[in-house]
Amino acid sequence: MKEHIEQLINLQSIDLEIDQIENEIKAQQSALDARIAALADKEALIAALQEQISNGDKERRALEAEVADKMAFVRDRQSKMMQVQTGREQTALLKEIEEGKKSAKESEEKIVAIMEEVEKLDARIIEEKNLLKGEKELVTEETEKVRTTIETISKTKKEKDALRQQQAQGINGSILKKYTTLRERRNGLAVVNVLQGVCQGCYMNIPPQRYNQLLRGDQIFDCPTCQRIMYHRPEEN
């Protein structure tokens, strides 16, 4: 039984190293993916700013057309001033002319505000595009670094996978199946040491009788709390 336990301990040691390698690969790729996603967000922001400019230009053109119509109306009223004969008609025309000029001025003020906003948006787009260009260059460099790193790490993983396969071949099939199931259910930790009667997987006390049996090392026991496979190896000072 001690031989089986030692085989499992060695296998788990390899598996934990493989887990660490896989986590490192995921972390490297995840960090790169986040930067690539940030590029997409930046491009979306620039597109949104450009859309705002487009809408602003449309609104400005519509207002310019309104101003032209209003000023044409004012000129028409002014020409009619030469034809009126009564004070009442003149007063009415003067009111229409004043209202037309006022409305045209309000539209012109809106046009100026839109042009100022578009100018700010243009400046913002230039800034964002410059930032995007710089970030794209950095991401291109980072992509190559990550590719090289993952390639190197993957070679190490391949070696560990081969070592794992070799180690697993010497383990009883039913024990290996149990070990695999426990690793899946117990966050990668299937075989645990017991120190001073305490399981190092769940940190719960082992019944004294079971602990004494475990110390003999002639049987395989599971932790009654977390069901992990237990072994005893004294702490190293």
Overall description:
It holds the Pfam family Zn_ribbon_9. Residues 11-66, 97-124 form a coiled coil. The protein is mainly alpha-helical and 237 residues long. Helices cover 78% and strands 5% of the residues. A 4-stranded mixed sheet has the order 2-1-4-3. The two termini are 26 Å apart. The relative contact order is 0.13.
The domain tally reads 2
| CATH class call of the largest domain | Mainly Alpha
How can the largest sheet be summarized?
4 strands, mixed
Strand order of the largest sheet: 2-1-4-3
Number of helices: 4
In angstroms, what separates the terminal alpha carbons? Answer: 26 Å
Mean pLDDT: 94
Global geometry: rod-shaped
CATH architecture descriptor of the largest domain: Orthogonal Bundle
- Along the chain, the helix and strand elements come as HHHEEHEE
Structural class category: mainly alpha
Count of extended strands: 4
Please state roughly what percent of the residues sit in beta strands, choosing from under 5%, 5-15%, 15-25%, 25-35%, 35-45% or over 45%.
5-15%
Binned, the helix content reads: over 70%
Low-pLDDT regions = none
CATH topology of the largest domain: Helix Hairpins
- The gyration radius over C-alpha positions equals 39 Å
Topology:
Blueprint: H1 2-81, H2 87-169, H3 173-185, E1 191-195, E2 198-199, H4 208-216, E3 221-222, E4 229-231
Parallel strand pairs: 1-4
Antiparallel strand pairs: 1-2, 3-4
Helix pairs in contact: 1-2
Brief summary of the model shown:
The chain contains four helices and four strands; from the N terminus they run αααββαββ.
